[in-house]
Amino acid sequence: MNAGGAIFKCIAGICLAALVWPAAAEMTLISDDALSGVSGQGGIYLSGDVSINEFGGPLENSYFGRCDDVAKNCGARLAFRLKETGGWMVFDDIRGSFAFEGLTLGMRTIDSGFAGDGELFSGDVLELGLPNIVRFDDVRFKIAASSTPRPTDPGFQQTDMFSVEMQGDVIMEGNLLVFPTGNP
User: Fold this and answer.
1) 148-153 contact pairs (CB < 8 A, 24+)
2) Is the CB of residue 169 less than 8 Å from the CB of residue 135?
3) Of 40, 87, 129, 150, which is the most exposed, with the fewest CB atoms less than 10 Å away?
4) SS3 helix, strand, coil % of the chain, rounded to 5?
5) pLDDT, tens digit, for every residue of 59-99?
6) Distance CA 150, CA 152 (A)
7) CB of 106 within 8 A of CB of 43?
8) Over the stretch 119-138, which tens digit does the pLDDT of each residue have?
9) Could you give the CA distance from residue 73 to residue 64 in angstroms, rounded to a whole number?
10) How far is CA 120 from CA 113, 123, 127, 145, 179, in A?
11) Is the distance from CB of 129 to CB of 151 less than 8 angstroms?
12) Nearest to 153 by CA among 99, 102, 90
């Protein structure tokens, strides 16, 4: 072995040892008194990059198809029934991609009437901390009313209300609070 190879192996060994050594640290117990002085926050911090039907969906039938076929819808579909006996509100032909960093999920206790601005409430709520910037890349979808949740269901009729196309950055600030209901 030449001297250069030996020096390289020596340096690689030292670097490897430096990386492994902290992992070998031993855990120690903390007494109840010491632990009572520790505070922290609960919650989840999320970042993501989501692509939806960028190149078309896997389903091809009389309604869905390839994205290059203008006579077909190629994106995802979300359907919501607004009333038990009512029709369906749908987000249809959803496609594109978006990225975000810093969406937080946590619990928050509300024990005031929002300084007189809201109904009295005392309990825990889910708090969604909105990310500062959401980046949209060729995001498209339609908002429509539909007689059925799926276009393949019997009696399907849909009225497209409007189409949305989004490109670029959206700045989001604030929190969204989700309140529990008394009726499950």
Assistant:
1) 148/88, 149/79, 149/81, 149/88, 149/90, 150/77, 150/79, 151/62, 151/63, 151/64, 151/73, 151/77, 152/61, 152/62, 152/63
2) yes
3) 40
4) 15, 45, 40
5) 677 777 777 777 777 778 889 887 888 889 999 888 888 89
6) 5
7) yes
8) 666 778 888 888 888 999 98
9) 5
10) 4, 10, 18, 35, 12
11) no
12) 90
Q: Where are the domains of the chain?
A: 41-178
Hey, what amino acid is at 82? L
Cβ neighbors of 15 (< 8 A, separation 6 or more) are none
Residue 100: closest CA among 128, 134, 129, 130: 134
Please compute Rg for the chain using Cα positions.
27
Amino acid at the residue 170: V
Question: Beta partners for 129?
Answer: 104, 175
Q: Would you state the structure tokens that stand for residue 58, as one six-digit string?
A: 């896997």
Cα 172 to chain centroid, rounded: 14
Quick one: tokens of 147? 């007689």
